[in-house]
Specification:
Layout: H1 2-5, E1 19-22, E2 25-30, E3 35-40, E4 45-52, E5 76-79, E6 85-89, E7 93-100, H2 102-111, E8 114-115, E9 119-120, H3 129-145, H4 150-168, E10 169-170, E11 173-174, H5 184-196, H6 204-211, H7 215-226, H8 230-246, H9 253-259, H10 265-276, H11 280-285
Antiparallel strand pairs: 1-2, 2-7, 3-6, 4-5, 4-7, 8-11, 9-10
Length: 292
Amino acid sequence: MADKIIAKGRFWAPNLSNELHLPGASILIGGPHGQELAEHAHDFIQISAGYRSIAEDGASTRKQKAPDYFSKPGFARAIPVGLPHRGGWSNGTEVVVVHLRESLIESVADELRVSGRPNLQFDKISTDLFVLELLKVAGREMRVTGVFNRAYFESLVVVLVGHLIRTYGRYRSILTPAGCRLNPRQMQLIDEFIDKHLEQNVGAQAIANVLGIGMPRLLAAMRLTTGRSPHQYLMLKRIQRAKQLLRNPTLGLAQIAVETGFSSQSHFGAVFKRLTAFTPRRYRMDPGAGNR
């Protein structure tokens, strides 16, 4: 019976025409020729869905009973991390498979202001119409256009993950604005990172990476905690360091500009005056002036 359910002699494997790699995720398509995959496990969450192929009517296979682990038209399936499983699909079935890294799930959960790590429990996902339609859209786009627009598919994946978290996530709560403030330990990590890389072109994304949170969350949290954007906070830290260095009369202004990460002495002077109301030379002559 297996030979009638699957296409004998055909082998399905990920390649450039049926797989798209994205940050923290990948999307694969299979079918309409049947396949049976040996038992295996993943270090990521797998979400899949089956659809009746428009390329083959599958009339010869509709009365054949497929194994329980096969992807079936009109049903979705979720495989947790590390769970051994078999897979496959019958002739006339098209499948869409999405692999989701835990890092992506945690990042989206952070953007949704979920408190704590989401614990996904995929009960009743088999008939989840939202998942079925979203994967169907992804599969159709990959099959019909053949052009994998990364921005388009990244958006689909984020929407999928957001839905999974909201529908199947077990988490403590949604953070209030007050709960989105950075705690003292997080601020310490930011300060240590900036101090260590002050001479370099430190960006907001690098700071977000240090904390393991997304850019939108960082921007909101920095303003709630410090009243400044990440860039403004970085400029403040550079000027604080510059004030210390200006107390050393052997250091020239150009050298201080380099050591505090400014692109030029003129840029350093302009930022210093904007934040202190004094030029670096005036401050060097009277360090107490900046405190009056």
